[in-house]
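1st attempt posting a full record on here, be nice pls
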Amino acid sequence: MNETRINSWNELQEALFEDAWNPDIARYRSRNAFRGLSDAGYPLETTLMRLGGQYVDLERHLLRNFRKYAHRDVVERDSLWHWMSVAQHHGLPTRLMDWTYSPFVAMHFALTNLEKYHTDGVIWAVDYSKAHQLLPEKLKCALEQEGANVFTVGMLSEQVTSLHELLEMENTPFTIFFEPPSIDDRIVNQFAFFSIMSDPLVCLDQWLTRHPAIWRKIIIPADLKWEFRDKLDQANISERVLFPGLDGLSSWLKRQYSPKI
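the predicted structure (as tokens):
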């Protein structure tokens, strides 16, 4: 079963960490990427997909103009992957998808939207190490030579220089997980990284259904959301920490003082 519906806070902890043990290093080091959504029915769509229309044709125009109008010092290197990381981070629609190494950060995003407290939430857990076993040989070799489990933007820049090249690498779609540069405290505090599908037309959850051994869905029932939200706040996982600055502080205070729906 790829879907687990939990019934208590303790069950949630067990589900989040159930495959954290890594026998190769004898440590509890999960190989999962986590993503929390406030509605369990939401697909794993990118912000580019949500534009609708001929979004694939718009992708290169969005990136080209972002690079043209952005300050020249916003990236540490002039590569596709540096620019896409910065663009995603600042809200440009891209084919990247946000993930976190932290199950608690994912839990925060599953519980942050008070307007969805009548709806079940979800935390996706995808084994990025197993996902990378499905990569084209060139990319698998690059990871193995580096002794890494995920790419950095530097490593990826050495292997793939354009989105067209990514699409042409293999006929079968694949997904890559990579870490962005530590652009600011938000990236660091959220323990964040990205995924990208080689084919922008393929939705990640559709791809995952073809590979059931690498993912799980943990369903958070609507009637448990308030309890979990309060306990997560008590654990100091909130907007105030994950979005450092006045915007995060304001969002945290707004939610703290909102009436229970």
